[in-house]
Amino acid sequence: MVFHRERESDRQPLSLIIPHLYLGAETDVTQDCLSSRGISYVLSVSRCCPQPVFLPKSQYLRIPIDDSLRDELLPWIPEALQFIDGAMSLGYSVLVHCAAGISRSPALTVAYVMYRLGLDLDDAYRFVKERRPSISPNFNFLDLRKEHAKFVVTKLRAAPPKLKGRETEIVIAIPSLRKVVIIPV
Q1: Among 86, 89, 108, 143, which has the highest number of CB atoms less than 10 A from its own CB?
Q2: What is the CATH number of the domain that holds 145?
């Protein structure tokens, strides 16, 4: 069996999905990388990625799951969406990452896009894939969300967080879906 270790030059840089929401890998969690993009909050979808010492505990959330068929993302979605919304409501940017930025963190990012932009699973997946082509979420995570996420996302959307002191909006055109979405920032 031959293993290929990804070279730094082969790795995709972190990706801006929507304003203030980035998707990346464990290697993106450096003080230089985060500060150069104005990222103050980190959501780690991993059991083993270490918490950065330069981030306060209140600005870091760990979703302790592995990229396996036995782990479920669904129970963690409400807490993760609230963490992201909480940071964004204060004007901060968030990096969602897992080890490689290919499976777990993209699955969670798709859930957030469903929630925030009101897209169904397939459209949210395409939306994220257009911004980070390397994603390939574990089918277990996507199948679970297909069954249950509509309920979870609809329930959370019923009581969206209030964005303190925010009166501007960003219009996101999604040509591939022939849709325009307006989100408060």
Answers
A1: 108
A2: 3.90.190.10
Q: How far apart are the C-alpha atoms of 59 and 57, rounded to whole Å?
A: 5
The model carries a pTM of: 0.77
Q: What is the pLDDT of residues 41-52, one digit of tens each?
A: 999 999 888 888
* Catalytic machinery residues: 98
b/e per residue 28-56 (b: at least 16 CB within 10 A): bbeeebbeeeebbbbbbbbeebeeeeebe
Q: Which residues pair with 180 in a beta bridge?
A: 173
d(CA 172, CA 13): 22
State how far the Cα of 72 lies from the Cα of 64, in Å rounded to an integer.
10
In a domain, 169, yes or no: yes
Please report whether residue 42 resides in a domain. yes
Q: Is residue 10 part of a domain?
A: no
